[in-house]
Amino acid sequence: MGHGGNVIEELTADHREVDAMFAQLDTATAGDAERRELADRLTMELVRHAVAEEQHLYPAVRRYVDDGDDLADKEIADHGEVERLLKDLEGREPGDAAFGTLVAQVRENVTAHVRDEEERLFPLLAESCPPALLDELGEKVRRSKETAPTRPHPAAPDKPPLNKILAPGAGFVDRLRDALSGRGK
Question: Measured between alpha carbons, how far is 153 from 150 in angstroms, rounded to an integer?
Answer without folding.
Answer: 9
